[in-house]
Amino acid sequence: MKINKELLKGSTVIMILTMLNRNPMYGYEMIKEMERQSGGIFSLKEGTLYPILHSLEAEDWVEAYWSEHDGRRRKYYRITDKGGGQLQDKKQEWIVFRTALDRMIGEGGV
């Protein structure tokens, strides 16, 4: 099933912060990991991912650094302490949103 881009738009920051909270990653790795973890439902293009990462850097939620592995130099991203706090806030916000939406569409048992 193809997911409307507007639904994905509101969820990308929490997905990116969650992945980076687990491990630092480079951009293409994030794209592939997001696809893998979502069973192919979530797929970002580089032209979508990198502007989000740059805005997260500007907010000091993530930081970039260069690292070389197997002779390849890559720009990695890791979550900052400030980003970790934002991730916790966004998880709480998501729980409230999801619960309210489930109630509205009749999936919450209420």
From TrEMBL:
Transmembrane spans: none
Keyword DNA-binding assigned: yes
Pfam families assigned to the protein according to its UniProt record, in alphabetical order: PadR
UniProt cross-references to InterPro entries, sorted A to Z: Tscrpt_reg_PadR_N (IPR005149), WH-like_DNA-bd_sf (IPR036388), WH_DNA-bd_sf (IPR036390)
Span of domain Transcription regulator PadR N-terminal: 16-88
Keyword check for DNA-binding: yes
Molecular function (Gene Ontology), one example: DNA binding
Record key words, sorted: DNA-binding
Protein name: DNA-binding protein YwzG
Upper classification of the organism: Bacteria, Bacillati, Bacillota, Bacilli, Bacillales
Gene field: ywzG
